[in-house]
Amino acid sequence: MSKSLVVITGASSGIGEATARQLSAEGYPLLLLARRVERMEAMNLPNTLCRQVDITDVAAVKAAIEEARAKFGPVDCLINNAGIMLLGLADEQDPAEWQSMFNVNVMGMLNGIHAVLSGMKSRKHGTVINISSIAGRKTFPSHAAYCGTKFAVHAITENIREEVADDNVRFITIAPGAVETELLSHTTSDEIKAGYEEWKEGMGGVIAPQDIANAISYAYNQPQNLCIREIVLAATRQQP
Question: What is the pTM of this model?
Answer without folding.
Answer: 0.94
